[in-house]
Structures are given as C-alpha cells and as structure tokens.
Amino acid sequence: MDTLSIGIIIVLLVYTAIGVLDQISIQIGPYTPLFAAAFTGFVMGDLTTGLLVGATLQLMTLGVATYGGATVPDFLSGAIMGTAYAILSGKGVEYGIGIAIPIGLLLTQMDILGRMVNLFWQKRAAKFAEVGNARGVEMSNVFGIFSWTLSRMIPVFIGLYFGEHVVNLINEAIPVWVMNGLKAAGAILPAMGIAILLHYLPIKKYWPYFIIGFALMAYFSETFSVLGVALIGLALAGIAVINQQNKVKEAAAPQPVAVTATGSDLSDNLYADEEVNFND
C-alpha cells in the first residue's frame, strides 16, 4: 500500500483543524463525516469513495449530538483516516467504514483529553477576568482552541503519516470475524441513525408524507432519485405551509355583522305601524 505525501497530510491536518473549529462554533458543515470524507477523497483523487464512506458515516451520526457536553465518537477524524485507508489500500468502501468506526470510538478518549486540558485554560481565563485583564482572557481562549484542535490533529497525523504500518498492525491485530462484524455494523448503523432521527420527528402527525417518500423510493427507485423525492417533499411542505397560512389569514379576517331581524319581521313591524296610524 502506498503512503501519503507530506503535502496531502498537511492539507488534511488543516482541514481537521477547520472541522474542529466548525464543530465547536457555527457548525456549517465541515465537521460532518460527509464533508470530511468527501474532501479527503477529493484531495486523494477518489471523490466517489470519499462520498460513499462519508454518506454512510453521516447516516450513523443522525440523531447523535453532544447534549450536556456528552462525548460522542469522533467521526470527523474517523472519516478522514477511514477514507484515506480505503483509497490507499484499494480495498473499497466497506474497508474504510470498518476502519473509521473503531477509529472514531477510540478517539473518543482524545475528546475527553481535550476537555481536560481546556479546564486549565478556563481557570486561567477566570483569574484574568477577576483582575480585569481582557488580553489574558482573550489569549486563554486562543490557547484553548489550540489544545482542542491538537487533540484531533495529532492522532490524525500519526494515522496518516504512519498509515501503512498502522493499517498493517490493525489488519494483524483484528481477527477476521471482528472485521466482518464491523462491516455488518456499517450496514445496520445507518438504519439505526435514521430510526433515532425519526424518533424526534412528528411522524404520527405527518405520516402520509412519510409513506409517500417511502413508496417512491421502494417501488420507483429506478425512476426517482433521492433528489427527486426531496423536491417532491419540498413541494408538499410548501403546500402545507401555504394552506396553514391561508387558515391563519381566514381566522384573522374580520367577520361580517349578522342581521338578527328577518325580512318578514321588518314587514310585520311596518304594517303594524301603519295600522296604528290609521286607527289614530
């Protein structure tokens, strides 16, 4: 198996740092496995493998988030190294996914280490804040960013630079049945990720839309692509929003004043008045 050049390793390390910063700040996408694996595949000249590895890992992460500061598998680093190993070894997407999963689980410990190191900088920032040293608070936060990104960049560098030896050690250490189990998990976990996501969606309320999407992909997959089904879903969502807005407008519109007296009542009153005047 070939090794990566220093230039590609540096590019992937820079992307790792950008992904970590994105994950702890604005979260616009680079931290996700799909972006990370696709970028790795693009840099290494095999975008297709990167997209396939990243899409599978992305499905595994659906519904997974660091609620309350909980630590989750580091699929950012796993996606980068898994894609790189899949391309370098030439063993395909399943091999990359099977490597990315244990890497992501193993590097969970690096997330904990990064948080522990950041406690030191947080305490320093608190001390500087007590004495009104704004510059000290600012620099403490900057150093906290460095420690956080290094907790991912260092293992990624080791994995990419010593890639051939690392992969050989992994292949020798992991039994065949374990690798087969990881491949099976790679096929099951996307469905589990979707199930977790569906658990938080109002499926009971909007089940007709769910059935429409499922039927289109299950029975018309040769005709409809995922993009086509997504556009149909967008159109149905637009119709639902328009109908809801119309209902709100109708409810807010002023209602006409109801007339309590009927035409016959008015005529009877008129004749009654004329009769009274005649008698007078």
UniProtKB/TrEMBL annotation:
InterPro entries noted in UniProt: GatZ_KbaZ_carbometab, PTS_IIC_man
Keyword check for Kinase: no
Pfam families named among the record's database cross-references: EII-Sor
Signal sequence, start to end: none
Keywords: Cell membrane, Membrane, Phosphotransferase system, Sugar transport, Transmembrane, Transmembrane helix, Transport
Gene Ontology CC entries for this record: plasma membrane
Compartments, as annotated in UniProt: Cell membrane
Main location: membrane
Membrane topology: Multi-pass membrane protein
A biological process term (GO) from this entry: phosphoenolpyruvate-dependent sugar phosphotransferase system
Regions annotated as coiled coil: none
Transmembrane segments: 7-28, 34-57, 64-87, 99-121, 142-162, 182-202, 209-242
Name of the featured protein: PTS sugar transporter subunit IIC
Species per Swiss-Prot/TrEMBL record: Lactococcus formosensis
